[in-house]
Specification:
412 residues; five-stranded mixed β-sheet; ten-stranded antiparallel β-sheet; mainly beta
Length: 412
């Protein structure tokens, strides 16, 4: 069925002097039944083995479900069928399902100020303070801000476990614009009037908070048969573990097995290596597990390596946290703030009563400020085999630059 929306708002508008209006408004909405992509027939085998090994219960990470015929003796693998072996329903293989399972809420304080001074200067300012929450923003993954992977980390917890900031969330958003008709020689009489009259100066300034995103693990797969087939780029759904929330963003620790499997590094057993994107070119620092928890904002979730044939007991992070599911919440990180100023100068040259030429000079991002946006969210990009690389390093984005444009229009 189609999603439905409940909207509510309340506002006050006041003219503070002639030609000047101030408005303050609360706007809220709740959307029920948004479209959501889920794993419709999860493979239980890796999760069952992890439950048995980590906490002594093969159903601990499968919502209490054990595949038909599965036992410890056969590695919790059910034998009927081919595509469906190990899945909740062994009669079917991997199933991608689109449901009306997503919900969202929006609460915003919206303010506006408009004025016109002497019919030559128009000013407009808008500021919004808002928060948007949901458990799914889109049915496709883009690896962009707020929408790294569309599938829930836990296939049995598609609601509460995914509740977080929306991909469209922007806490602060400010826009101001002006239009100034220069009053000199506005009638454009004579040669001097034609040259010095008819100018208009315009500008717009935009400032906004950074967009949310979720660090994701390329190899962090719970159900490889599903995620490789249906996720954008084959990116896994498993998220990293939280280390020290006071450590700098861009610091991430890899266990010895993960460091060897992912980067080919030789880290002593039981120890971790910490990478810091604030130190590009460095080779990382080898530390103990307790030091990794203290010095790193994130710990690499190595559960996906189990699916690649590495024994569960060799996975440092999974053994440390006793779960295959990372505790980093969805969209709990923010990209860089956004600042942009555009200006333009127009010259209108009257040719006849109803014909004119318009000359335009426009500068976009006139201050040449680089807006890096959301950084690289892929945790395997923390190291490139030689040195610290691009993970959570906003400088790896282009950021944009100043652009100038000239134009002429004939108006009739």
């Amino acid at each position: 069925y189609n999603p439905y929306t409940m909207s509510f708002n309340f506002g006050i508008q006041q003219e503070i002097y002639r030609g000047a209006v101030v408005e303050v408004r609360y706007v809220g909405s709740r959307i029920i039944g948004q479209f959501q992509t889920i794993n419709g027939n999860p493979d239980l085998r890796f999760l069952a083995l992890a439950g048995q090994d980590l906490v002594g219960d093969p159903t601990a990470f499968t919502n209490g479900i054990l595949a038909p015929g599965a036992t410890a003796a056969n590695n919790f693998d059910n034998r009927p069928g081919t595509n469906g072996a190990g899945r909740v329903d062994p009669a079917f293989g991997a199933v991608r399902t689109r449901i009306n399972g997503a919900n969202s809420t929006y609460h915003g304080l919206q303010t506006r100020f408009d004025t016109r001074i002497r019919n030559v200067l128009t000013l407009n300012m808008n500021y919004t303070f808002s928060k948007t929450l949901d458990n799914a923003s889109e049915i496709f993954g883009t690896l962009g801000g707020g929408q790294s992977v569309p599938i829930s980390q836990n296939p049995f917890d598609t609601n509460g476990g995914e509740r977080g900031l929306s991909a469209f969330h922007q806490k602060h958003n400010f826009v101001a614009s002006f239009l100034y008709d220069l009053p000199f020689f506005s009638e454009q009489r004579g040669v001097v009037g034609k040259i010095l009259g008819g100018y208009q100066l315009n500008g717009i300034v935009r400032m906004g908070s950074g967009r949310p995103y979720t660090p994701v693990t390329i190899l962090g797969q719970v159900d490889p048969g599903f995620e490789t087939a249906f996720n954008t780029g084959g990116v896994g759904v498993v998220r990293p573990f939280n280390g020290n929330p006071n450590a700098s963003e861009g610091t991430i620790a890899y266990g010895s097995t993960a460091a060897g499997a992912v980067f080919g590094l030789d880290v002593p057993a039981g120890q971790f290596i910490v990478f810091d994107t604030r130190q590009p070119g460095s080779a990382g620092t080898i530390v103990s597990a307790s030091q990794a928890l203290e010095q790193s904002r994130l710990i690499y979730n190595d559960f996906g390596l189990f699916n690649l044939g590495i024994p569960l007991e060799a996975l440092d992070a999974v053994q440390l946290f006793k779960t295959p599911y990372g505790d980093v919440g969805r969209n709990t990180f923010l990209g860089e703030p956004f600042y942009l100023a555009n200006v333009s100068l127009f010259k209108n040259l009257k040719l006849t009563e109803n014909k004119s030429l318009e000359f335009r000079v426009e500068a976009f991002n006139v201050l040449n400020h680089r807006n890096f946006g959301v950084p690289d969210p892929l945790v395997e990009d923390a190291f490139n085999g030689f040195a610290v690389s691009t993970f959570q390093n906003p400088g790896q984005n282009n950021g944009g630059s100043r652009t100038m444009r000239l134009g002429v229009r004939f108006l009739f």
